Structure formats: structure tokens, C-alpha cells
Amino acid sequence: MKYGFFPGCSYKGAAGYKESTEAVSRLLGIELVEIQDWNCCGATSYWSTQSIEAYVLPARIMALAEKQGLSEIVNVCNACYSTLRKAQEKLAQDNDLNEKVNLALAEEGLKYTGNLNIRHLMEVIVNDLNADDIKKHIKKDLSGFVVAPYYGCQLNRPWADIDDAHYPVLMDRLIEMVGAKPLKNYSAKTECCGAAHMVAHKDLCMPLNNRIVKDAVSKSAQTICTLCPLCQFNVDASQYKSGLPMVPVIFFTQMMGLAFGLSEKDLKLQKLLTPFKLAV
Amino acid sequence: MMTDSVLRDRFFKKYHGQEIENCIQCGMCSGSCPLAPHMDFGPRQLFAMAREGDMNEVLHANTIWLCVSCYNCVVKCPRGISITDHMYSLKKMATEVGIKPPKMLHLYRSFNAPVEKNGRLTDVMAMAGYGLRHPGAAMANVPLGLKMLSRKRLELKPASVKNIDGFQRVLKKAKELERVS
After folding, report:
1. Which ipTM was obtained for this model?
2. Which of B29, B61, B96 is the last residue of a domain?
3. Which residue of A has its CA nearest to B93?
4. Lowest CB count within 10 Å: A2, A204, A236, B81, which one?
5. Residues B40, B109: one domain?
6. Would you call A158 and B177 a contact, using CB atoms and an 8 Å cutoff?
7. Chain B contacts of A56, Cβ < 8 Å?
8. Contact, A264 vs A32, CB < 8 A?
């Protein structure tokens, strides 16, 4: 299966996200075609400061994908995913804005029509593949491995159309499909990690992260599984020198890789700040 | 300083703020907001003030800058108000009227500057810009930075789009359009 792929700025530097995504996609026969010459989506920073540029940045990415003949854009970051969707939604409603955005894109010979599906890789794997296509790659028994599925905010909010806004289950299903145990009563699964506010307001955001970690630790999860580089970084880094009980924070693609028998080294688990050791 | 009524008019018309007339003051937004306890006013109260036209007070409140874009309030609002978007509008208006830039605006500017220049961002570039303005925060993050470095997690080379001339022409045009609108 072939999809357009928008890696976003934080993908490459995230702890093993790139390596595990590439390895798992190869095994599953998912071909991720990178959008040529993509730019930063702008994220919350541009929504907070610019009226037109905030749309031009995501529209350029989508226009480049259209030029490459791609009909779907797969994201691996919640913020990229929601930024592209938000821009697409507003541009479909506002002709004047759409015209301005296209005037700007014309400077580079690009045109945005918006005729694209914006998706997240985790959802693509669960919805587009048969469970058997995933299960047939399982090489390692993870039945004793308890995984807390942490979704963060911008995958299911504000739209709540691919899953529930507060108690999503798609990643729970994925964890089950690869033979591990999703933590069933993980009430912090969609609580906010503080996102970029962790930089400027660390004191206010630490309690949010502590809650996400504590809820997983106290319910005996062996790892927290994430699907966004910023969520992963905040929940992982907040444990550094916190003095509280720790739990490793991995990407869903690393969890799949473990089940598929890939080594911890291949999945770059040594890049995590909170050390990971599989004990099942 | 712009008067409250001019600002209210600007918020309601240019920034589509008239949607908050639908607010029934139920407080679901403030109740679901992760950082509401630290805000000068929760979103419910902020919208009540904006409706009454206390716009200077609204634009000087820390509320708008503490919105983390988690969209908890938006999915809870029984009136379907796009609360997060109004927070974005109020941040832009506060910047226009020249409030003393809060830490989050410094952070946004440190994020935007390398994007404008190169089209892409690395954490190191955004943090370097912010660290120059807030050396205390930068110093406090040195141990974590070193740990990231030892795990080869820091991208020290700036990232960039290839067609940087084209990208910058697009942004320049967007800026022109922003100025006239």
C-alpha cells in the first residue's frame, strides 16, 4: 500500500521514531512516499502569531503532495496532523482565504485544491490493514507486557471522528493485535502533556506529566506508548531527575517492532532518556 | 491605546469573535482546561468580559498565553464554540496592541524565525533563540541537553527546504497579503 508521507521537523530527532517506522512499514508492506521539499507545518506557533502564513505553510505541504499525485498524507506527529487538517477544513470554508493562500503559493508555481485525505500512521495501520496481516509478523511473545496507550491531544481533538475524544481505543487495539496487554483503565490517556508550554512554563506543566506517568506506574504498566514526538519527549524528559518512579516512553512503532522480533538496538531504544529494558 | 469598543469591534468582525455571543456561560471550558487554575481568568470569564467589551483587560490577561491547544474545551462546549481559535485571535490582537511580550510570545518568535529563514526547524534552533532571551531557562536545561547529546538526539545542523528561494517568495507574498488585510 502506497501513501504520501509528511515526516515533519521533529521526526528525525525523535528517539528511534524514524528507524522503527521505516522497519515496521517495510515489514507490513506500507510504502511511505515522502513529500518532496516539505516545510514545517507552523503548528501552534503560527496559529498564535500569523493569520495568512499559518495557512500558507500547511497548504504548501499539501500542494506539494498534490503535485506529486498523492491523494493521502500520512503524518507521524499529532501537531502536524491537526495543523494540516485544520488548514484543510478552514480553506474549504473560506473562499477569500483560499484565494489568498493560492496567490502566495503561485509564487512557486504551486496550487492547492485540498483534494486529499489527512491521516495518522497509527490509524492507517489499524484501519487499513487486516489484523492477520499484522499478526503474521509476530515473532516475540509480549503477552506479559503491559502497555499504557497515551494518545495526547491533537489526534482526536477537536474532530473526534476517527476515535473518541476522551477515551480513544485505536492504539489499545493495536497493542492487543501485536500480542501485548493494553492498560485498560488508563485514565490519563488523553490528558495534555503541556506541549510547547513545557519550555516556557515548565513549573505549570510538570504536574500534568507527573499525572500521565503516575497513572501508568501505579497501574503496573511497563511502558507508555505514544504516537507524537512532542508527547514522547515531554513525558520521557519530565521523568529525568524527578525522583519519582519511572516508566519508559516508547513510540507505537517501537512496540510493534519489538513484537516483530526486531532488536532494541535496531529500534534505537537506547536513545530514550528513561532506560528501556524488555522484561516480559 | 485603542479603546475597548474599537477592540471589541475588531475582535468580533475581523477575527470572527461574534461566535462567543452564543456562549451560555456554563463553564465547561474552564472546568476542562488543564491550566485554568493558573489563569487570571478562566475562558468562561474571559468570554464574558470580551462580550461586555472589557477588551484591554482581556488582552492583558495571561489566560490567552496559557492556552495549550489541547482542545479539551472545544469538544466539551455545548454551543460548539471554537474556543482555541478565539485564543489564537486574542493572542494576535494582544501582540498588535503591543502588550509586554510574555514568555510564550518569545518562544513563538524563536520558533518562527528559523522556519522563515530555512523552511524547517530543529529543536536546537528554536531553543537557541529562546535561550538567548531566557538564559536562566537555558542553563537549567543544560544537563538534559547533554544527556540528549550523548544519545545523539540533537540535530546540530540547521535543516532547510531545497527550493529556499521559492519558499521565501511564497512567505513574502503571504506577508504582503497579511499587511493589506
Report:
1. 0.96
2. B96
3. A49
4. A2
5. no
6. no
7. 170-171, 174
8. no
